[in-house]
Write a structure and sequence with these properties.
Blueprint lengths: L2 H7 L2 H24 L23 H4 L7 E8 L2 E5 L2 H9 L1 H4 L8 H5 L7 E8 L2 E5 L2 H9 L1 H17 L4
Antiparallel strand pairs: 1-2, 3-4
Helix pairs in contact: 7-8
């Protein structure tokens, strides 16, 4: 090794550059784990594998009401089967499942705010702040609609803990 090269390798600037390079590589490699949000546990029928009891998740947004999906228009994602009314809805969901998947995986946000995991029912629903929420009953939907901000704040805070209690 030449004297000039040996001097460069032992210089503080080289050591700092090497350390920064290693730290940068570690950050890049760890980024997916840091940036990835915990995946929602989706309410799924244990027998059929259907989410939303077969209702079309896009219809809540496009038609402003629940509509049952068709068996010949299904989309499978993460061992969950979603059904749709038409090809356009299926394509929209396939392109942006994070938009159309019910928040909290279809669990009732009022129950989550209380620290419990109670599956919502597709006929008790609300699209609030561009997210779909399902509720266990008309009463929990009414409680949510009376104070959606408060319920969502509490549900968001408790969801990581509640999600860990849901078996898969």
């Amino acid at each position: 090794m030449t004297a000039a090269r040996q001097q460069r390798k032992s210089s503080p600037a080289f050591a700092l550059g090497l350390a920064l390079g290693i730290v940068s590589l570690a950050v890049v490699l760890a980024a997916p784990a840091i940036l990835a949000a915990p995946r929602d546990r989706i309410v799924v029928d244990a027998d059929s594998g259907l989410a939303l009891s077969g209702f079309d998740p896009v219809a809540y947004f496009a038609d402003h009401k629940p509509k049952i999906g068709r068996p010949n228009l299904e989309f499978r994602r993460d061992d969950t089967v979603w059904r749709f009314q038409n090809e356009g809805n299926r394509a929209a969901f396939a392109a942006h499942p994070e938009v159309y998947t019910p928040r909290f995986g279809g669990y009732d946000p009022v129950a989550i705010a209380r620290g419990a995991s109670v599956p919502g029912h597709p006929l008790f629903w609300s699209v609030t702040s561009e997210r779909l929420y399902l509720f266990y009953s008309a009463e929990t939907r009414a409680a949510f609609m009376a104070q959606p901000g408060n319920v969502l704040e509490a549900a968001e805070r408790k969801w990581p803990e509640v999600a860990r209690t849901i078996g898969r």
